[in-house]
Design brief:
By secondary structure, the chain is mainly α. It has a three-stranded antiparallel β-sheet with strand order 1-2-3. Strand 1 and strand 2 form a beta hairpin. It is globular. It starts with a helix and ends in a 7-residue tail after the last helix.
């Protein structure tokens, strides 16, 4: 699923297949890079339902925000109901909306609601991991955050400075710079900042 439906953040030089069609959204599939997907065919539509699901699930995962009282079933309900379509929308959820979901009662809803609230204080490397930037996993996020005082300073740096300031490979640095160059991703970062997520690596 991740290989077939993952999104390519590099919007230049798309190599679309004339016949292979995404079964979920109908977009022509495109060839991914070696680093991103082992040259498999990917759906380039960021609004494709499985891609939204993967991004939302990553944010909630143990590697990122670590929502302890959240499982795959809950993630699917949140996405399919339209309540959560990206990381920032977790923080707009109302307790009553969570309580109304299948399998939830007042106690479970409160636990999940508190998970979301407490995640604002989690480490900046978790935020970076949860953004789903190609080539940036936990190890890369930790290494990068040791070299920059904040995520703001990281995103303000070009890929050359990221390479010179940390131990990550050039492909990782280029992925970060390319991801942040997308206006949609920049808006997501701004929204997360306004919500109060921890962007400081100190």
């Amino acid at each position: 699923l991740r290989k077939l439906f993952s999104v390519s953040q590099d919007r230049s030089g798309k190599n679309l297949h004339p016949k292979l069609i995404c079964p979920e959204c109908g977009s022509h599939l495109m060839r991914g890079t070696v680093e991103e997907a082992g040259e498999s065919w990917q759906c380039p539509n960021p609004d494709c339902p499985p891609q939204i699901l993967l991004r939302v699930a990553l944010w909630a995962s143990a590697e990122a925000m670590g929502f302890r009282h959240c499982n795959a079933s809950l993630i699917k309900q949140l996405v399919r109901s339209g309540l959560v379509q990206d990381a920032a929308e977790f923080y707009r959820l109302k307790l009553s909306e969570i309580s109304a979901l299948d399998g939830m009662d007042a106690g479970k809803a409160r636990e999940f609601f508190d998970d979301i609230a407490s995640s604002k204080k989690r480490e900046a490397w978790r935020v970076l991991t949860g953004l789903g930037i190609p080539n940036v996993g936990v190890d890369e996020a930790r290494a990068i955050c040791r070299q920059f005082p904040s995520l703001d300073s990281l995103f303000a740096a070009g890929w050359e400075r990221i390479v010179s300031s940390s131990t990550v490979q050039e492909s990782v640095a280029r992925s970060i710079a390319g991801w942040y160059a997308d206006p949609v991703n920049r808006r997501l970062v701004t929204r997360l900042q306004k919500i109060g997520l921890n962007f400081s690596t100190a």
